[in-house]
Design goal:
single chain; mainly beta; 9-stranded antiparallel β-sheet; 7-stranded antiparallel β-sheet; 3 helices; 16 strands
Length: 296
């Protein structure tokens, strides 16, 4: 029965050319039906000890699920992006355009056509979350931008980039640190859905400044770049966060930006509890290697 429902929805969206606006009730139904139809056996989250080192050595596809407890991986939950590909020791977002009848193309055409270019690029909103929680820790990933997707979405902007989640409570409460497409290193806090910039500093410089249309990405592509974030609660209940960058995968880590959340200046209380870690990328086809978490 699920297959027939999915087929009906594919025909409805593809043949009739119906465009369903982002966040619509019908769009959410379509996405939920596809997630149910694509359900894999859920795995129990493992108890992870430090250091946690994931090298993407097991080939396969991690598919997006509607809830963390439904994830078939004991290590990660793919919250957004459709699918996470693992092949030959490398992790990947979806690459290139999906085929018209691909189930994830159909899903995102219904639930978020604007940010995913009609569902063809669900990787534009890629969110990979650990299933283990961490409080004071160092997180490292190497990433390679294969392509920057020039979406017409208004959400494609200078704030997009390669980012690491820290103390992720839920999608509305977290810290992140990373490199933006405008070449700046940034540390942000999200509280109750509102973003607060803790620190931002120029990192990648170019002769021609960032411009959404004429120079939309200052992060070098087709090369491995290392990101390392550190988050620690201080004795006075402030939170210190640092971002380091390895520009050429040589092991030479450069302090790109650092910040302190005093629990007063940025939307209220600091996030002191343990939370999930993870990776966010925006409007990009990206490859990943050598993911690590070390307790501080």
């Amino acid at each position: 029965m699920k297959k027939y429902i999915l087929l009906f929805l594919v025909i409805l969206i593809t043949i009739s050319g119906v465009i369903i606006w982002q966040g619509s009730y019908l769009g959410s139904i379509v996405k939920r039906v596809v997630l149910i139809g694509e359900s894999q056996l859920a795995a129990v989250a493992l108890t992870i000890t430090s250091p946690f080192h994931y090298t993407f050595k097991v080939d396969g596809v991690l598919k997006e699920t509607g809830a963390m407890e439904e994830s078939p991986s004991p290590y990660f939950w793919l919250n957004s992006g459709g699918m996470f590909l693992l092949k030959d020791g490398i992790g990947k977002t979806a690459q290139g355009e999906l085929e018209k009848l691909n189930k994830w193309r159909v899903t995102y055409a219904a639930s978020n056509p604007t940010d995913t270019d009609g569902g063809y690029h669900p990787q534009n909103i890629f969110r990979l979350i650990t299933r283990s929680k961490w409080q004071n820790f160092q997180q490292t990933i190497y990433a390679k931008i294969k392509k920057y997707n020039l979406s017409e979405s208004k959400n494609r902007s200078e704030s997009n980039g390669l980012l690491l989640f820290n103390r992720y409570v839920d999608s509305d409460n977290l810290y992140y640190a990373g490199i933006r497409v405008d070449g700046t290193a940034v540390i942000k806090k999200k509280i109750n859905g509102n973003y607060y910039t803790l620190a931002q500093k120029s990192f990648y410089k170019a002769d021609v400044p960032y411009n959404r249309d004429t120079n939309p990405n200052l992060i070098p592509g087709q090369k491995w770049i290392g990101l390392k974030s550190e988050v620690v609660t201080n004795p006075d209940n402030t939170v210190s966060i640092k971002l380091f960058v390895d520009k050429d995968k040589t092991g030479n880590w450069i302090l790109a930006v650092e910040a302190k959340d005093d629990g007063k200046s940025y939307g209220g209380s600091a996030i002191l509890s343990e939370g999930y870690a993870g990776i966010r990328t925006d409007f990009m086809d990206v490859e990943f290697d050598d993911y690590k978490i070390i307790k501080q």
